[in-house]
Fold:
Amino acid sequence: MSSNQAPTYYRGYEAIIGLEIHAQLKTESKMFCSDATTFDAGDNENTSPVSIGMPGTLPVVNKRAIEFSIKTGLALNCEIRKKSVFSRKNYFYPDLPKGYQISQYDEPLCEHGEIKFNVGDKDNKYEKTVSITRAHMEEDAGKSNHFGEYTLINYNRSGMPLLEIVSGPDMRTPQEAAEYARTVRSVLRYLDVCDGNLDEGSLRCDCNISVRKIGAPKFGTKVEIKNINSFRFVEKAIEYEIDRQIDAVEAGEKIPQETRLYDPDKNRTFSMRLKEDAQDYRYFPDPDLMPVIVTPEMIEKFRKELPELPIARAQRFVTEHGLPEYDALVLTAEKELSEYFEVVAKTCKNSKAASNWVMTELLRELNQAEKAISQSPIKPEQLGQLIALIDKGTISGKIAKTVFSEMWTTSKDPEVVVKEKGLLQISDTGAIEKIIDEVLAANTAQVADYRGGRTKLFGFFVGAVMKASKGQANPDLVNQMLTDKLNKPA
Amino acid sequence: MIDKKAIEHIAKLARLHVSGEEAEQFSQQLSKALGYFEQISKVETKGIEPLVTPSDMEVFWREDISIKELSAEELVANAPEKVGNLFKVPPVV
Structure:
């Protein structure tokens, strides 16, 4: 792994990319009131006088939201501010019923962190470090649905606890940006503080992009692309935007500071609003909320409670399970996948085989079926038992694939499949000898050729014997017995 | 100071309609009021931490428990306009 990646340039330009990730914290109630946070609630079902902005209501901080934010800050190697302040960000929009969003401005909870991750594929990867400028708490706004002559508003999302994680302008390629976002999501899911569901909007990603001529001292004007709902689209939107901005600069145009949206169907970005009249948010400390005081004891307690994070788990997979680094990284990218693998490995006591089966057979089927690991019809214990059956010689590796596909469709235990389908490996030398004799008798010409020196034909005989045994013959025995028979003078 | 232009800007941010005459009038009134408070800026504040809250109280935490007190019907009951249990507002895009 090299940590010094050669810089990537685009037509003589360098791209400067920073990300703002909004993570919805997995609390039971909202940031400043006791409304439920369930995703599938009916219209305005999860609201209260506080979240619809009734006059005279007062916000009260959710303890767990603070805990989750501090844990995330610690996992992102941030400093945790001992005293942080909630501020009002004032703007008028109907999805914000109070006329201001409670956020943090000049005294955010978490600051000055960094995160490391790998970029690139198996053969060409490098380690990248991205700084975390800040991570602050804020409340979400409601949801508007526009119908031309009117707009309908649902405040179920209003007041949902968010942690906004702001990276430094440290990324230089779309791949780095997408990988950074994946890594942050993975950390949030390992911490179990955010479910990371991009479709449901519990993780949202805004990208800031600018381009500059190689060696130019200052960054170009940055453009923000909002609410991209998949990491693949993060990559594509940034790719498009870099090209668009270079085209504009080359044509002598000035890049306006604006917010753009990405259209995945057309694979282009388009302008949503100009930011020219500088947003006048008139931030000031929210007089309804006292400063958040975090004691060193709290920080230590939360630090002790941090689970094993993806990078540490990948390292452990290398040392404890003896996996190659690449396999360890693939298996630990998702928390559930890493846990699945560990159960398989524990059941069969063969980490290398467990890793191979999970990474090739299982991931292939899951991808094809577009299923998450939690939806796998094969439980990890069952996959472990299957591998154990191979290792015990009960079934051959080839038959195991048949058993695997049967398990995939029926969710049955491997022993049951083997019994029902009569797939036990044949290790009875008498039975194998009988099959070999039949195969040799049916292919006398090839036998003569082999004995005449065409030893390459050996594979042909193995194949024929395996086929005749319906794949059930023990391949080691077949190899050994065939060698004996063919080399014995006729 | 608060001139007519500043009043118009504040009115725009607050989504208030202010006539030219009113803007003129408010700018004079607000300038006077703010001028009075300007005296505060003469106080020497070097080395003094910005005050976030005048009380020494710390934040009061709430346990993360969801509670439902009012139904969606009750919460939208006072809306000037609604569709089902959704608030209906003038077009915003």
In short: Chain B touches chain A through 36 residues (CB under 8 Å). Residues 20-37 of chain B form the longest helix (18 residues). The first strand of chain B starts at residue 61 and ends at 62.
